[in-house]
Amino acid sequence: MPAFWLNGKIVAAEYAKLSVFDHGLLYGDGVFEGIRFYNANAFRLAEHLTRLYDSAAAICLNIPYSIDNLVQAIQATISDYSEQQGYLRLVVTRGEGPLGLDPMLCGQANVFIIADSLAVVEKTVLQNGARLIIASTRRLPSDGLDPRIKSLNYLNHILARIEATNAKADEAILLNRHGNVAEGTADNLFIVKNNTVATPAVSDGALAGVTRALIMQLADTMGLVCTEKTLAPYDLYTADECFLTGTAAELIPVRMIDQRLVASCPGRIYQQLHAAFIQQVQQETKRLN
Ligand code: PMP
Question: Fewest beta carbons within 10 Å, which of 185, 213, 224, 227?
Answer without folding.
Answer: 227
